[in-house]
Please model this.
Amino acid sequence: LRFRVAGDTWTVPAGRFRVTADVDTAVRTALGARPGTAVPLPIGARSKAIERTVGELARRYDRPARDARVAGLDAKLRPVFEPPVAGRELDRPAAARAIRDALPAGTRDGIRLRFRRVAPGRTIRGFGPVMVIRRGSNTLTLFDGRRQVRVFRVATGLAQYPTPLGRFDIVDKQYHPWWYPPPSDWAKGLKPVPPGPSNPLGTRWMGLSAWGVGIHGTPSPASIGYSASHGCIRMYVPDAEWLFER
Model:
């Protein structure tokens, strides 16, 4: 059996399906049939082999959708996006029927497969919040897709503990968080701090995919606008609370 998809051909030996012809049933039907009757020859095939082949076809030809994503920044440090790409998914029941139809027919023509379109989950238009943090100017700019929403003054990392460069995601959000000392030399001997006015994280924590680094409020507002943290992005407590909700 040959399967054709967008110029690609994949051949599967028909022997894997263990095709059998029920000749006895066909002969009994023919002996009792009226002259000129077309007598079908029942053909059987291994269902598991068909299912396995359909699974292989799906793995070979399925294409996941790709959401719009941030590709980088332009010369003015605004986010630039890669457009979304639709995916495709094999219509598995239709593929199984096509195999079952092709086996008794003895066809060697290419079997055309049907696919369902898989829409991307996120487009550029509805992308949502993107933050651009500038270490040099100690600012955090919030964008809604391409549209600038608000600019915040922040504190970023000291020279010996710089805020990491790169593209990261918010992976953890905590309301009135505890602060736990990280496994770093500067935190040796320090104890966890519960929520409250002296908590180093303020009232909100937005953890990044960069380990141990996050955006948070601070009980030290005088540090805002400077390189003063151990890598995190500090904000005024009201600003962090506003950003947390968005």
